[in-house]
Design brief:
3-stranded mixed β-sheet; binds glutamine; 13% strand; 8-stranded mixed β-sheet; alpha/beta; 485 residues; Amidase signature (AS) enzymes
């Protein structure tokens, strides 16, 4: 591993500010390492040449007051990037070149960052293993046989393999936190409404949020303060006072109350996960915080509720891909035939499954029985959290019910694939912030994550608790660069 690519984002930023490293040196290092790492299949589109040119331009007239001065960053291919192909991991958008930029990526470029490339993901962010991508699966740098998690699998893989110093993903039901957990990295799903959804390819609009993925909590806080902004172009963006999260990071969490929900002890959960959770409780106590047992009684209904609400919204959002307005079009005998062929050839099987479920639960005969019921249960899940937050400041759970699984292991069993998100989906349904931090390894040496769930818009507190725990945990990622040999 070259020295430059092993540095954290905050270190890189400091070195640029002190003129110890130039943007070009940093960009070259990440480009070279990315070029030698094709085997991971983390990139869908590279922007290496442009990035090197931009880095040269930056160095000619560097603005060292910016928060990401000349720092190259690769992002999930769900963020629209002006004039750079954006596919959402789908054949449907294989030739889509957006004429506009997403707000969260624009926020990064405004602070001096440079687009390094677009990272692989599950098709339209539907998946938990990055195996539904039209551009092929991604490998986990921890072990070549493992999935990196999904849907932000390319982002997690690229980050853990040091192909990008930091990255952003999106999380509709766990797609930032689950891959972070599988790759020994940090991933934050912000409160719904914190980060603008403008220019992000929509999956399920009432659940989707963009968020940072990083090597450590400090970098996560820095990127979050940059991407989180009020945006009039997104009607669900919330105008609240945002902190300078990295400046206000504080490890002193003495006296904080952390809830342990009994319903997260699911049947068949491996001992390793239970042990990790117990260790998490000890870390929290070591930090001087208090543990409180809580109940979130409707937890069991979160996954079935999610798999009604998310496909319903997806079926509606994906109606726009009809061969007329965007991307792929198949030839047909007439208009209807063209629509049908375009959608059956352009979408992969997981996306088609979601569209069918979504259309079914929204159809007039079943709307009340499924969609409306699911919305009511969603409210109950949200009320559980409201009740719990009368007693605690944050909640600690495992991030996932297992460590990373093998490529191909769950592709023929959608239900077992969906079960991956059992600990993460309630957070999206309730619109809350959640962070996964690496907290240990299983018997095979694969990383495991712990999740902290916060009150709405209380990211600072969540980051502080994660920051304090990170120090106690002292996690080290064991990555051998096997893919470069
Ligand atoms: N794995 C979940 C799904 O397939 C969540 C995906 C996501 O968060 N984008 O729906």
């Amino acid at each position: 591993m070259t020295e430059i690519t092993s540095l954290s984002l905050s270190n890189l930023v400091n070195k640029v500010k002190k003129k110890e490293l130039s943007s070009l040196e940093i960009t070259k290092a990440f480009v070279e390492r990315s070029e030698k790492s094709k085997k991971l299949n983390a990139y869908i589109t590279d922007n290496f040449e442009n990035a090197l040119n931009k880095a040269k331009q930056f160095d000619e007239d560097p603005n060292l007051d910016l928060k990401l001065p000349g720092i190259p960053i690769a992002v999930k291919d769900l963020f629209c990037t002006k004039d750079v192909k954006t596919t959402a991991g789908s054949k449907m958008l294989n030739s889509f070149i957006p004429p506009y930029e997403s707000t969260v990526t624009q926020n990064m470029w405004n602070e001096g960052a440079i687009l390094l490339g677009k990272l692989n993901c599950d098709e339209f962010a539907m998946g938990s293993s990055n195996e539904t991508s039209y551009f092929g699966n991604v490998q986990n740098p921890i072990d070549e046989n493992l999935v990196p998690g999904g849907s932000s699998g390319g982002s997690a893989s690229a980050l853990a393999a040091r192909l990008t110093p930091i990255t952003i993903g999106t999380d509709t039901g766990g797609s930032i936190r689950q891959p972070a957990s599988f790759t020994g990295t940090v991933g934050l799903k912000p409160t719904y409404g914190s980060c603008s959804r403008y220019g992000i390819v929509a999956f399920a609009s009432s659940l989707d949020q963009a968020g940072p993925m990083s090597q450590n909590v400090e970098d996560c806080a820095l990127l979050h303060e940059i991407i989180s902004s009020y945006d009039s172009k997104d009607s669900t963006s919330v105008d609240f006072k945002r902190n300078e999260y990295s400046k206000e990071l504080n490890k002193d969490i003495k006296g904080k109350k952390i809830g342990i929900p009994k319903e997260y002890r699911v049947d068949g959960m491996p001992d390793e996960i239970e042990d990790l959770w117990k260790k998490g409780v000890e870390y929290i106590k070591d930090c001087g915080a208090e543990i409180i047992d809580i109940s979130l009684p409707h937890t069991n209904y979160a996954l079935p509720t999610y798999y009604i609400v998310a496909p319903a919204e997806a079926s509606s959002n994906l109606a726009r891909y009809d061969g007329v307005k965007y991307g792929f079009r198949a030839e047909g005998k007439n208009l209807i035939d063209m629509y049908e062929k375009t959608r059956s050839e352009g979408f992969g099987s997981e996306v088609q499954r979601r569209i069918m479920i979504g259309t079914y639960v929204l159809s007039s005969g079943y709307y009340d029985a499924y969609y409306l019921k699911a919305q009511k249960v969603r409210n109950l899940i949200k009320s559980d959290f409201d009740e719990a937050y009368k007693k605690v400041d944050a909640i600690l759970t495992p991030s996932t019910p297992s460590s990373a699984f093998k490529i191909g292991e769950k592709t023929n069993d959608p239900i077992s694939m969906y079960l991956n998100d059992i600990f993460t989906v309630p957070v999206n349904l309730a619109g809350l912030p959640g962070i996964s931090i690496p907290a240990g390894h299983d018997k095979k040496g694969y990383p495991l994550g712990l999740q902290l769930i916060g009150k709405p818009f209380d990211e600072q507190n969540l980051l502080n608790i994660a920051y304090a725990m990170e120090e106690k945990i002292g996690f080290e990622n064991k990555i051998s660069d096997w893919w470069m040999k």
